[in-house]
Amino acid sequence: MTERICIEQGCNSLGQHMGKTRVDGSIIRRKRCSKHHVQHQAAKKGLTPTQWTNSFHPYLKYRKDYCENVDHRLGFTCTATIVWPGQLQVDHIDGNHDNNNPKNLQTLCANCHAVKTNIYRDWEDKKNTLFDNTNPTEKLFTSLFEVA
Are the C-beta atoms of residues 108 and 91 closer than 8 Å to each other? Predict the structure, then answer.
């Protein structure tokens, strides 16, 4: 049996592997390659391919298309120009990666996310203090000049 080729015009890729084989050992493939399968499924739902793919993730589905720190929430205003969705990351406000409550999630550019993680020491096993009364800018400078 010949391999199934993607049905999209101009595409010569193999159809997406379904992870299954027939009794004769041949691979079962979709009628579209992986790229065109995602595009087709996303279009059916009125989403971009990235939005459709993220819709299955526990928290990436809440990622916005801008850095939420444009509102000065971290004590400084984000000035990054987002040219690619990969520059944006979903941050767990309380530092707990198991807490995927949408109210605990915020979209930050990679720069703001790195600064926030450093200010609030998200890697430590303690509650994040993002909403305490400490000035975020003061926390930033304290953490930057902290003696190890």
Answer: yes
The pLDDT tens digits for 81-90 are 999 888 999 9
Query: Which candidate, 78, 8, 83, places its Cα nearest to that of 43?
Result: 8
**Which two tokens mark 72?**
């000065």
Return the closest-CA partner of residue 16 out of 31, 7, 25, 8.
31
Cα–Cα distance, 32 to 116 (Å, whole number): 42
Domain residue ranges of the chain, discontinuous segments joined by +: 1-56, 59-148
Residue with tokens 């975020």: 136
CB within 8 A of 68, min separation 6: which ones?
A: 106, 107, 108
How far apart, in whole angstroms, are the C-alpha atoms of residue 58 and residue 67? Answer: 19
Does the pTM exceed 0.70?
no
